Amino acid sequence: MTDKPPAAVLFYGFAGLIPFLAPPLLTLLWPEQRGLFEQALLWWAAIILSFLGGARWGAAVQAPAPDPRLIGLTMVPSIFAFAALLAPVELSFRMLLLITGFLLVLIWDRRSGGLPGWYGWLRERLTALAAVGLIGQLLVS
Asked: Which pTM value belongs to this model?
């Protein structure tokens, strides 16, 4: 890892995992509210996947002459997340779509430049724990 992530980035990055990890635990405690917890997790995952696209957009527009193709590509995580929310398929498949989206953005982050050296390290951990929450919800539902 090159350098360490700033403390605020670590704090808010890991705090953002609470809505990923809480729903499976809450479902175990209050199974009658399973549907609410599933939907909360699904929407949070879509919001965060969209946020990751926004982070890529922010990095891309800093170039003196931003590449229009790259700017367009940065919109894909948001569109993918929106489609996963609306897909007329089982909840489990929609959650698997979101996990796939997180993994694809992680691969993109690891293979491209323009980001701090610690960013990939942090994204690996956050992606893994987000996937744990989504899979955990599938297991308890």
From this structure: 0.93
- Give mean pLDDT in consecutive 10-residue pieces for the chain, a chain of 141 residues: 87 98 98 98 98 93 92 96 96 96 95 85 97 97 88
CB 137 within 8 A of CB 23: yes
110/107 Cα distance (integer angstroms): 5
Q: Where are the alpha helices (DSSP H) in 7-74?
A: 7-15, 18-29, 34-60, 68-73
| pLDDT at residue 15, as a whole number | 98
Q: Say if residues 127 and 110 touch (Cβ distance below 8 Å).
A: no
Nearest CA to 40 out of 62, 18, 15 is that of: 18
8 A C-beta contact, residue 65 and residue 26: no
